[in-house]
Recover the amino acids of this structure.
């Protein structure tokens, strides 16, 4: 069955990310050409432009390696357009941030441009009807999003099938392993549940934290993979009335791992950045995370001592080995607030094009170790680290892909699950009750749409 159900997104996106681009692309980034035409057909210049303050928001915050690229593009953008001032309020995209964004849109405090999710996570914000569609923008700015592949646009259409956002990069999720620790303690890299258990037990015996994880802040990846492997792709991607037994068994695996001593003793109180530092400092052997984490590992000097492998599995799993979470589900939106202001309209278009041109996407790709899937055609990398090569192997050997749970049920129902994982992991909350609560909230919110 290998590759039989591999998604079009993964195949095509990796192809454009890892293979040489086809031909030259016109620069539409920060060189001043927004693609807007005058009645005479000439590019509209910037002479006589009024001063503009553009309010922007992105999820590039905290330790995300994309922050460096985002800020570099913004800095150059303001040099290229001195009449445009950027007021940016980017933050890490945790559940609190998503709730704050939804609240701002609900009360009319939305920014001019926002980089946000395009899947069901965005449903609450999309319901406010405050975004401009790509078709509307391209009618006036024909070069808008011109470097973005059709595959990427298809992947980032909103749930109603309409494109409103312009994407930059996609993602994959996998198990990062400190290969040098595995070699030191003569432990095989985990490829199934039994070998994962062996690794956990061996590292625990030798005073190494087996798995860096914050069940308090970011248990997302363990939720996704334990449910996916327990249920199999089809049942995992369904949205049932009540929690299937396979979902429940999947979440209970997290309790099993905690009972084995797989996680840090303070897993209920540490944040995700602290957990990530444990791994980078070689105090933990493994960490389940996404492609965005790889850049930080490289920056820590661990690019050639770290590998990423497919999720090993769970007992009695239904998913095929090498099934991975992967996709492209975010992009830059322009709000109607900016579009309806003649000065802000042009500034917002220029801003998004600076970030989503081939040149802008190249910066994001390089900042994250050249291993993310990309929304534009980029040249093949020639200098991948051991980590980068393993990431390429991870994606190329995938037998199936799936999007995370919040892509289907949305942010608020998903937060019911994430906020309860500490309790589930110690047995003070029932996995079945938590899942049913999340599904009931999804049904309630869906009925209101």
């Amino acid at each position: 069955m290998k590759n039989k159900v591999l998604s079009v997104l993964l195949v095509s996106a990796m192809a454009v990310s890892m293979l040489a681009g086809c031909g030259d692309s016109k620069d539409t980034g920060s060189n001043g050409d927004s693609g807007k035409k005058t009645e005479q057909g000439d590019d509209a210049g910037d002479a006589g432009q009024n001063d503009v303050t553009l309010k922007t928001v992105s999820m590039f915050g905290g330790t995300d390696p994309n922050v460096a690229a985002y800020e570099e593009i913004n800095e150059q953008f303001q040099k290229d357009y001195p009449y445009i001032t950027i007021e940016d309020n980017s933050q890490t995209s945790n559940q609190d941030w998503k709730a704050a964004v939804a609240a701002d849109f609900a009360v009319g405090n939305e920014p001019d441009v926002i980089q946000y999710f395009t899947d069901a996570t965005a449903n609450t914000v999309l319901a406010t009807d405050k975004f401009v569609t790509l078709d509307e923008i391209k009618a006036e700015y024909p070069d808008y999003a011109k470097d973005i592949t059709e595959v990427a646009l298809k992947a980032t259409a909103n749930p109603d099938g309409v494109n409103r956002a312009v994407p930059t990069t996609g993602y994959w999720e996998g198990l990062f392993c400190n290969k040098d620790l595995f070699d030191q303690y003569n432990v095989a890299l985990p490829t199934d549940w039994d070998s994962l258990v062996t690794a956990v037990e061996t590292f625990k015996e030798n005073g190494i934290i087996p798995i860096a994880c914050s069940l308090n802040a970011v248990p997302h990846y363990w939720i996704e993979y334990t449910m996916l492997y327990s249920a199999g792709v089809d049942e995992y991607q369904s949205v049932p009335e009540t929690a299937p037994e396979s979902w429940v068994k999947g979440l209970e695996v997290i309790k099993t791992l905690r009972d084995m001593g797989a996680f840090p003793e303070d897993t209920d109180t540490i944040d995700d950045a602290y957990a990530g530092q444990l791994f980078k400092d070689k105090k933990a052997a493994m960490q389940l995370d996404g492609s965005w984490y790889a850049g930080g590992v490289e920056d820590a000097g661990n690019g050639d001592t770290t590998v990423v492998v497919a999720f090993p599995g769970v007992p009695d799993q239904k998913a095929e080995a090498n099934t991975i979470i992967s996709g492209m589900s975010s992009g830059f939106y322009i709000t109607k607030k900016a579009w309806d202001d003649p000065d802000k309209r042009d500034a917002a278009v220029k801003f998004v094009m600076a970030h989503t041109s081939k040149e802008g996407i190249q910066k994001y790709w390089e900042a994250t170790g050249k291993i993310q899937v990309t929304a534009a055609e980029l040249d093949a990398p020639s200098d991948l680290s051991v980590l980068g090569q393993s990431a390429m192997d991870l994606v190329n050997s995938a037998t199936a892909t799936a999007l995370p749970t919040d892509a289907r049920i949305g942010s608020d129902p998903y937060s019911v699950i994430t906020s309860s994982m500490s309790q589930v992991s110690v047995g003070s909350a029932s996995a079945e009750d938590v899942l049913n609560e999340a599904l009931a909230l999804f049904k309630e919110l869906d009925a209101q749409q």
